[in-house]
TrEMBL record:
Statement: the UniProt record of this protein carries the keyword Hydrolase: no
Alphabetical list of InterPro entries matching this protein: AraC-bd, AraC_XylS_family_regulators, Homeodomain-like_sf, HTH-like, HTH_AraC
Protein name: AraC family transcriptional regulator
Biological source species: Streptomyces chartreusis
SMART domains membership: HTH_ARAC
Amino acid sequence: MGGMGSRERARHWRYAALPGVDLLRARYIEKTFVRHTHEHFVIAAIAEGVEVFHHRGADQYAAAGALALVNPDTPHTGRAGVPEGWQYGAVYPSPELVAEIAAETTSVRGTPGFVRPVLDDPYAVRLVHQVLLAADEGNALAADTLLRVAVTRLLRLNGGAMPQREVRTAGGLVAVRAREVLEGRMAEPPSLEQLAADLDTSPFALLRAFRDVYGMPPHTWLTDARVRRARRLLDAGVSPAEAALVVGFTDQPHLNRHFARIIGVPPGAYQRERKNVQDLR
């Protein structure tokens, strides 16, 4: 599928009855996810094999019966931890939905999130896969109910208030300004040297500050941001070829490669699933 090995497969979709939630079912063997972030939570339920993902400075291992849990805007990677790869189902609920569930069903105050990146809980793993099955079958009541039960359980077992990131240092403020420049000039970004000069700092000082604040260097962040924006364009019906040029990739093959290394499926397959949801409404 979309250039994957013959034994690899993935479906990334949405179900109209679960607004604000992305769904994924996949089996990967040689697949490698580059360092990236998500705007939503990642709740990945491992059914077979082992996934390894780098998260907050260390490799994390999620085996069958465990969940890989990543908070929004948290850099991480992903790859197989065993030769046979890993098979999993994942739900990506929006921060707003998780906050709503936390306020109603838990004692977590502030911005809710997951404390540990891996949780061994076969019951929650089954719940996630049942959400995906209910979505496949068009069972809105079951899908919505099971998702809320799963998120509640995970927050009660592994939830807490996330620390608020306040950028106060001079270097941190420069990193924030650099991000704003890159967001505004995504299609034609400056070089690191030019960006640093415009912000009255040195290239290496900017590089260090940006890594400290965002967990990745500016060029990696820019690729991640381009894919995020391309997703929104694809959701709006823009063709992959046009989206590639709008966000600053030189052509569609470049978008295809980076999109698949971050989202897990090619942009064409991603958009077809979105169109299917819209057609069903």
